Amino acid sequence: MPHPELGIELEKFREFLGDALSEGGTQPLIQLTDEELAVLDPSALDEVIAPTPHLATLEAEQREWVLATAIRSLASRGAIEIANIPELDALMRSEGQFEKGGTADVDMRISLDVDLALVLRRTASSALAVEQQTSRGSVHGFVYVHSPALMLIEQVTGGGMHIFTLASSAEDAAKMMQVLVDPFGVADKDSKTHQLDPTAMTSDRVDGPLGEAIDNALVVSQLIVLGDEPGPLVTAYATENSVWTVRVDKPRAPSGVQARSVSDRSLNSEIVRLITMPAE
Fold first, then answer.
1. Radius of gyration, alpha carbons of the chain
2. Collapsing DSSP states into helix, strand and coil, what is residue 273?
3. Cα–Cα distance between 46 and 96 in angstroms, integer?
């Protein structure tokens, strides 16, 4: 079935974009705020896993004004075209407040680059989610996989800015996610792999080099493959001079928990592996 805005079958659309990216390579797409995404795709607030950290801090009345401002911002940037501006303008008059009970539908047409981001983040065959935690808060990254030559990257800042990029390969997508996992570039060398008891990570019974890395981590990241069933989970601990990863093949598995210090190359390979895992 063709996408109503793009007028093209989704598979053909993916193939077309993949061919275009193979020539031009990975490239920026668009940047949108929490509130702009809420205007463009309201149902995505509940249906898309990407967070909206700025909107989450606002009360209901504040949200109304922020969303109204977002419409004006999108229109001024040419991201949307509104056919009924006079009607909306009249609604927003009266000493800067909405008239009591006043409502109006927005006759809105979305630009192609915005529509690309909205379609690709909803229709991926698989996805990798990355959450970076530091003393300053959380930052998120998502890789929405459509084909080996077409991936949408969404980076979400703590302030609610969503930065979208079209990636032409898993290797390019992995490089962008690796910056979240190892922002200081300290992944240096591979150690031997340690098999862990699955209960070790939840009972504070981790000692040795891994225990030191956990205690001294400046950045803690979690990478998980999204799907109908929970996929592999990798937790990374970045200190001043090393990066340790703990890989869990399946939640609540009786075995399969592996930990090791990783080099830059091995860390990249691990992220590529997660991105390219087949969808369940």
1. 22
2. helix
3. 30
